[in-house]
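Input.
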Amino acid sequence: MDTLVNRPTTLKQPNRQRRKTRTALINAAQQLFAETPIEGVTVDDIVDRADVAKGSFYNHFGDKNALADEVYDEIAKDLEDHIVKNNEGLSDPALRIARALCTVMEYAKSHPQRLQALLALEDRRTNYISQLNKGLANDVRTGLEIGRLSGVDLEAGVLTVVGLVGVTMRSMISGNVTGSTKSLGSAMAACALRALCVEPSDAARLGIEAAQDIVK
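Output.
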């Protein structure tokens, strides 16, 4: 007899298998997008790497672009969670920006494939206040309002930091960085703050503090 007690047990296995398949597809796509431009990746490539049937792909995603959006959103959310955790309880927008930049650098060192996939897909999110940049935008806005930052408007301030982060991440992933990640994090955080008109010695101090606390 199919009782209410028995039904959850009956349904667990299909649901578990469905989650397993979806996870396999996302992980496979992440690997492939980190290795190859999305235009060069096919659904066949993804299902082969995931070792699932092609029909299963369309049970989860309408097309390759829908999967790419899922990969981007998942990595961006994970990175955002790291930034939020590292900035918890802090109110100084300049320090928060420095720590956010160092968090991205530490994430790139710890999860290079994820960061590479994120960079490969970043053009899918062209809005300067996209979900991943909302925290940064809030910090820049607050900094401008209280006079901690100056010399730029909100959009220019966010794009300045995002641009510095992007160039730094690509240099790290390509192996073109000669110094330590900690020293680079300190320097780039200070550079970002100076671009936002934080006093040079204060920018240097905050960069060192952020890198020492976050970059391993």
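The chain has two domains: 7-62, 75-214.
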